[in-house]
Amino acid sequence: MNNVTLEDIPLITLVGPPNSGKTTLFNYLSGKNYKTVNYPGATVEYSVSRIQKKFNLDANILDSPGIVSLVPNSPDEKVSIEALYSHPRLGIPDIVIVTADASQLSRHLLLVKQLIESKFTVIVALTMTDLLQRKGYDISEEYLSKKLNCNVVKINGRTGNGIDELIRATEIELSKNKANKNTEPVMFNSSISLNELLSVYKEIEDIERAVVFEINGHSCEPNLLGANKKLNELSKQLNNIPKNKIDQTTLKIDKILLHKYWGLISFFIIMALTFTSIFWFAQPLMNLVDQFFGFLSTETISLIGDNWLGNFIANGVIGGTGAVLIFVPQIAILFLILGILEDTGYLARGAMLIDQPLSKIGLNGRSFVPMLSGFACAIPAIMATRTIPNKRERLLTIFIIPLLSCSARLPVYALLLAFLFPMDRSWIAGLVLAGIYIFSIVSSTVVASVINKFSSKILKEEDNSSFILELPTYRIPKLKVVATNTYHSSMTYVKKAGTVILMLSVVIWFLTYFPNYNPKVETNNLTKEKAEQLISSERLSNSYAADLGKFIQPVMRPIGLDWRVGVSLIPTFAAREVFVSSLALIFRATGDNGALQTSILKEMRQAQITGTNQKLFTTATIIGLIIYFIFALQCISTLAISRKETGSWRIPIMQLVLFTSMAYVFAFLAVNGLRMLGIS
Amino acid sequence: MKTAAELKFGERGVINSIDGSHPSSRRILEVGFTPGQEIELLSISAFNDPLAFSVRGTIIAIRKNEADCIKLL
To answer: Could you list the residue range(s) of the whole structural domain that residue B47 is in?
Structure first.
């Protein structure tokens, strides 16, 4: 969110039903000022921005989650309605702009009517009029304005048509407001009877019939002055308005994507492509980044020399953060694909398809989008659960989200899989990665169903379980918007690498380099390479990290690992990706073979468990580590957001204890089970 | 009386009333299922539930038990 000065300048709040073009309008008005990242699951919190300078209107604009009516049905709708009546910092809006889809006027006017009734200063922004015109109809904004007794402006949030008129109307209303500033909105009566609701609909239908007219071939812009009579005549012909036809392309696509059998098959294909492409598309880009950091690190050493400073920059700074930045391409591709899926309108279909199986295990079709964004990051995913009306289903969704493999785990899996499957067989790694994702889905659903069955203590709430969701018209994704969001999400990751991960890397570097940074070893009869190896292993075994490791060693041995991996696991509770950079630092990969990752892998292959000839990283221990990472909840931010969204520490603490102990037990079983089967 | 849940794939019907005792009835009305509207059953999920109906120019997916409170003429 921006640091806008909030005093004294007017506040314009944007509201509208879902899929009415609200966020498109917000993006257009706020332009580059808008920096909040939209994860799949769309707006769940409000975002505030200053209106772009070019519009010459000094005001703040607030975007909030879509609402159908002023009676909230889920936590995200509550956020919107509360923002309307009492925004904690911004107060009551001076103007409320409501977006309404002109091709679905009879549905979208319900909210408009309720807002006017509650005495807000309302301006209606009519969207999708081009869609209506394609169907052969048009709408008279003047007449609608008279009927509703508020301003109505036709806009197009994509091309910007009508935005200037919208701004002008806003300015006029603002100056009117200044003259008599005592228009307090009244609370909407949420207990109005269904019959009253129906009579509002009657009014709306009358309005719709009166303002929508057929475009006759000759004059597209009928003379509106004094056209009342003509319009009334026209409206008689439009009793069963054929403009309510649904987009034919959407119907055709749904014949396949929502087909009884093909629908499910396409669902699995789409999901499988999503997850495998993360690995495949990213590989060439990752190799480039990898080479770059390897080169940088080698050059630094040869420039500054092999002293503590050169080591600090080459290993602590470049090696540490570089090991994490290598994975930017994968993360960007994940966000890109999720963004495209969201923008086409498919996600709502996916939610419908798996509502039934999810409701069997105590979840909801609406859990689908939060769960899917859980593969990007658990934090926006947990926030996106606000769209689930039923509290019990929402809490259960929050509970299992940390089990879905988030993008911070990708670097870890990628490194470990690269260890198991060398470059020439990287396509297998792609398949196994897809397997890991499937495994994380399966394990999260098993956990959900077990908790749903046995523990009414964890989730005390009981509520009406419901699934009512609009399936939007399919659209070609607005690549610019998707690309911008992908860029911001990736930059968040890069910034994290530049701050938290850099900091932790430096700490780990320090712990592994000091106090015995210049150990005395007999190097007379050794080659230069051998001598360096001896020095660094001597340095490490007398380091602070080794002291720390002595405590961890007993915990690590049962899962086939030693203190060095244990020390790498400690900082993962702040950020999972640090595991990769910690390994790089502890095993002293300097990138002298060109690429950074290659040299980490080389060092890992040579590593032996301290004091034995036994290899540290074997097929069994690597699989054990992967399993550990699938289950362990090692993310402080996730715990914090879980606390915030569930309202107490009960659920986050249960998540931490349950998932981390599951991780350890399953890793233990996997390593020792594999060994018994003869796979070391 | 026939309900929306009993429509066959591709079949149309006109809404007569909404059963107000169902906890979801308000939301069903709010999304546009009101007496007099013609609806069509457009898709059935692979697991037979939910159902997707056309109403007022859009497609709304609702569960079977919720479609059951939409009574048809």
So the answer is: 4-72
